Predict the structure of Cupin-like domain-containing protein.
Amino acid sequence: MRGLVADWPLVQAARRSDHEVRRYLVERAHEVPFAVSIGGPGHDGRLFYDDAMDMNFRMARGRLADIFAGIDANAGRADPPTIYLASIDVPTHFRDVDRENRIDLGSREPLVSLWIGTPTRIAAHNDFPDNLACCVAGRRRFTLFPPDQYANLYLGPIDNTPAGRAVSMVDFHAPDFAAHPRFADALATAQVAELEPGDVLFVPSMWWHHVEGLAPFNILLNYWWRDTPRYLGQPQDALNHAILAIRDLPPRERMLWRQLFDHYVFDHGPAVTDHIPAGGRGVLDPLTAETAGRLRSFLLRTLSR
């Protein structure tokens, strides 16, 4: 959606200069520490793993003005460090920024985050919520893939990740098709969007997206939301628990649990509940805030044993 937020004060400040948009944010920043990722030279802005599968960047915390001073101090260097503030919660860290720069999403109550930094490359990943990404400063390139492309993207571990989500191990700037031959199939489904200040992109739930900050200084503001009740659990937690409890069972037992998951979770048709008297079906009925809370309490008790 080209120019949808072009009238935002943030965008207007960015169009005047990088200095102006940084001043706008510093003047509204609360006196709280900001988390920042710092990557060393030589990685072309790619925040990723090193050869030992540790992160190739370090985390630090500091005042926003000091972080911006570090960006200024490295401007013009041939191979500067990567400086990136990721998923900064706007209401917690700023006054008035959300109020002055806002899209009306009706009754939704989204999380509002800022992503600020020097040129970056963020490996392809997906998120459970829907995402509305608003380019404020610089330029952003999104390369998107449908949810079913997970196998063709060669995902890394789910418990050791750069930012909480499994990421593609493919270097999009230099793909190794000998090591990742199915990536060619993923590329056949890819869609690319390049955003200028004021442009907005909708990334649906579970769509894979590789994100690049292309300018010397880049800002993105995004909204995340779910159209399901907040009392429902996180599917990633269920996946992690299934790995713990089911994946390494003997094949026959694993097959039986697959059938039970189909019965209770993925199919969940009349055969599951019709023979049980109404009012006695417990969590087999559609969940409410009350029954979801009881189920969560039960899980916490059993997992803590």
